[in-house]
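Subject: Glycogen synthase structure
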Amino acid sequence: MASAASMLARPIHVLSVASEMFPFVKTGGLGDVVASFPGALLNYGVEVRTLLPGYPSVIAAVSQVNRAAIRLPDILGYDALVWACVIEENTLLVLDIPELYDRSGNPYLGPDGGDWADNGVRFAALARAAAFIGQGLIKNYHPDIIQTHDWQAGLTAAYLHYDGEKSCIENGMPHCPRVVQTIHNLAFQGSFPAEDLEQFGLPPEALSVDGCEFYGRISFLKAGLFFCDWITTVSPTYALEIQSAEWGMGFDGLLRSRVDRLSGILNGIDTSVWNPARDPVVRFPYMVGDVIARLSNKLNFQSEFGLPQDRNSFLVGIVSRLTRQKGIDLLPEIMESLLRSDTQVIVVGEGENAIHRALSSLQRKYPRRFACHLGYSEELGHRMQASVDALLVPSRFEPCGLTQLCALRYGAVPIVSRVGGLADTIVDANEAAVSHGVATGFLFSPDDPVSLVSATERARNLFRNDRESWLRLQRNGAFTDVSWRGKAVQYVRLFAKLSGVEIVDQEDRKVIRLTPATSGGRKIVKQASPKRQIARKPGVTRPGLMMKS
């Protein structure tokens, strides 16, 4: 196989379709991945353009740079404009349909905290636009690959399937792009009533088991999984887990039937953004092994949350969506046990109202040992990683997880459940791993209160009784490669295989020929990212945009 230094015989053009992208809009790890992915691939000759909905924060950012306006055909009854621009070296295509996207706040939820009633149309329109672009409707742009992220982009492959190859050929393309459906979280499936089929612009035959139907409803994710040319998910272990009835969320049979077109590729993080030596929001930046600066951050963070400043306290952090999936509902039951032996716990995140109430109650009950910030904060997330002794990730399932990768980078020792990408990225500090100097954190299973408390006690005991081994865990984590480098190569090979582009090994000039795959009856014809500042939420006032050619 080709080495990391291999180059492509020609550039591969990828259209990445997603519902969020840091720093414009982010509700979780998806936004980080979509942002850092293009820069990781660019060095290998893969050029990525990202299609995003025109939320107010995205439109505000677009209005500050040079941009071109591109008209698309009617999309599900709406006039559609695409703004093409480059922001921080990311090439963006922004779908501007104010009736669907000009809404402040969370991209998926209304002011009442519930889903927007028209979310089906909002993200069907995104997928319809992606299919139009994939069919060559933007002059001189013919993507080889369309990568669709989660359910919000899942209908793209269905539109291409039902439109047929003719639409692409008429626009000067030899065939339609190959579609890679990426699963970031199988639990979110984009399920809508069957009677919305016509509103989504899909033909009657789409409402079948060999189409978009899933238990009598329309599932955008099912459409993507069924019609795409390849499926990727974000860790090898999760790729195995979702083929089981326990974790397949009803899709396990479909995924097993497509196992020959299913890959698990770990995510990476942008190490220019996640760099404790240059992080603009870390009070005392530090290099690996600088225990004094890291201790200063710890004391400052304790003070910021109203906890006693104590260098000897075992400070545990949690930065997460506050949901049952993330295991946060276990905290009230085990908090008394967690807080033993001079332990402090700080939680940052937002999520389910019941969990918010429970955490607020814990803060009142343990004011000197437990604190929480109920709300999303990118800056607090960075400062936590630079301050806590250990980061707790008690997820019931975790496709990849990014917080544990950031924790490794910052010297916050991860305590994580043995699932998905957590199991793939953390080496447990058992006796053998500690003695051989390879451990990076603490794993526990099953995901129950007893196991969670036991793992935390193991970590606390090592922190208190074997400081040399604890510092080695921190160093091991800091030197773990959590970047996109190795992972990007796996995507390059996959994209080359699907698009029929040759990989040329620069060392011996050998051409490595990868036979293009076939799928679903559709014949397939043959520089690192710059350092970026932490996101301050862009303005949400909708500017007046001028069309520029």
